[in-house]
Amino acid sequence: FATAPAALANCPPFPSVISMLCMAVPKGISVE
């Protein structure tokens, strides 16, 4: 999963959304 967010972060239309997703994804995995 680390590759997908990284690739999107290279050219994201909405940096804010990507940033939130990047933080939400690791947190979700950590909780599980």
TrEMBL record:
What is the official name of this protein in its record?
Answer: Uncharacterized protein ycf72
**InterPro entries named in the record:** YCF72 (IPR038860)
Q: What is its main location?
A: plastid
**Is Chloroplast included in the keywords of this UniProt record?**
yes
GO cellular component terms given for this protein? chloroplast
Superkingdom of origin organism? Eukaryota
User: Where found, per UniProt?
Assistant: Plastid, Chloroplast
Keywords from the UniProt entry? Chloroplast, Plastid
Q: What is stated as this protein's family in its record?
A: Belongs to the ycf72 family.
